[in-house]
UniProtKB/TrEMBL annotation:
Gene Ontology MF annotations: catechol 1,2-dioxygenase activity; ferric iron binding
Superkingdom of source: Bacteria
Family annotation (Pfam families): Dioxygenase_C, Dioxygenase_N
Family: Belongs to the intradiol ring-cleavage dioxygenase family.
Any Gene Ontology biological process: catechol-containing compound metabolic process
Keywords: Dioxygenase, Iron, Metal-binding, Oxidoreductase
Biological source species: Pseudomonas helleri
Lineage: Bacteria, Pseudomonadati, Pseudomonadota, Gammaproteobacteria, Pseudomonadales
Protein name (Swiss-Prot/TrEMBL): 6-chlorohydroxyquinol-1,2-dioxygenase
PANTHER family: DIOXYGENASE, PUTATIVE (AFU_ORTHOLOGUE AFUA_2G02910)-RELATED, INTRADIOL RING-CLEAVAGE DIOXYGENASES DOMAIN-CONTAINING PROTEIN-RELATED
Length: 298
């Protein structure tokens, strides 16, 4: 004899191990936002499946809750530990890949990262963004094109990178000049752009928090492959958030946030061309990168 009559059994039934996800999902109201419903149904199914596969002890489950709690407590206006977690788990790159499937030949996206600053100074063609005088001078130049190879005039290239010590200006306020190694450039009537910078170096992502500890516990290093960041925008075209990677970085094939794509690995070539050196106020030999950005229609 059971204490419940059939009419009292809740929607989906009483909790059972075998049907656990189904029972939880049956509680979602028909009136719930359909997208929220879909997201929560899928997450609940996969979370219950993971728990059934892992079979955590109570202590292990509480350790997991504690990790998430401490991750939240690390977050502030300038530190987003959950995005960092998404980055090192490859989820940031996966969401980006799903949302930016581009035709062959178009410049692919990669990770934005936390060190973008929206109000970098705008510079003339060929200017230097290196304000601390450290590092190997490098000329980066090329064109902004559409997928038919036609130039895009008036495109904005927003560029930023670490200094030669492996830090962004915003990580070293008062040590580096403000806006060191960041700036905005505009493509000319033939789509050409050029700027001077220094060869980027690999650097560790912020690793003094829960994500850094997790990487350590997993025997993973925190290093990003050496890169320059770009956001390229032009009216009528899809914005590209991307990088240029150096080809000789020891972390090229093991970027901790999975940001490297083979289409984004550039050649950094030593140049001895005196007229180019004179034009851009460089000394020979200097490093040069020739790089075109190819945008798709919006
Ligand atoms: C970056 O490239 O700036 C970056 C990306 C992901 C996490 C941390 C830093
Ligand atoms: Fe970066």
């Amino acid at each position: 004899m059971t204490a419940y009559s059939d009419t009292e059994i809740p929607v989906g039934g009483l909790f059972e191990e075998e049907r656990s996800a189904e029972i939880v999902n049956a509680r979602i109201s028909e009136q719930a936002n359909p997208r929220l419903r879909e997201v929560m149904e899928v997450l609940t199914r996969h979370l219950h499946a993971a728990i059934k596969e892992i079979e955590p002890t109570h202590d292990e489950w509480l350790q997991g809750i504690d990790f998430l709690t401490r991750t939240g407590q690390m977050c502030s206006d300038w530190r987003q530990e959950y995005i960092l977690l998404s980055d090192v788990l490859g989820v940031t790159m996966l969401v980006d890949a799903i949302n930016h499937r581009r035709p062959k030949g178009a410049t692919p996206n990669t990770i934005l990262g936390p060190f973008y600053v929206a109000d970098a100074p705008r510079y003339e063609h060929g200017a230097s963004i290196c304000l601390d005088g450290k590092g190997e001078p490098t000329l980066v130049s090329g064109r902004v094109l559409d997928t038919n190879g036609h130039p895009i005039a008036g495109a904005t290239l927003d560029v930023w990178q670490t200094n030669d010590d492996g830090f962004y200006d915003v990580q070293q306020k008062g040590v580096q000049p403000d806006y060191n190694l960041r700036g905005l450039f505009t493509s000319d009537a033939e789509g050409y752009y050029a700027f001077r910078t220094v060869k980027p170096r690999h650097y560790p992502i912020p690793s003094d928090g829960t994500v850094g500890n997790l990487l350590g516990d997993l025997g993973r290093h925190p290093h990003r492959a050496a890169h320059m960041h770009f956001i390229v925008t032009a009216p009528g075209f899809e914005q590209v958030i991307t990088h240029i990677f150096t080809p000789d970085c020891p972390y090229l094939h093991e970027d901790t946030v999975f940001g490297v794509k083979k289409e984004l690995i550039a050649q950094f070539v030593h140049q001895t061309d005196v007229s180019t050196a004179r034009r851009y106020d460089l000394q020979v030999p200097f490093l040069a990168v020739n790089w075109d950005f190819v945008l798709t229609p919006a």
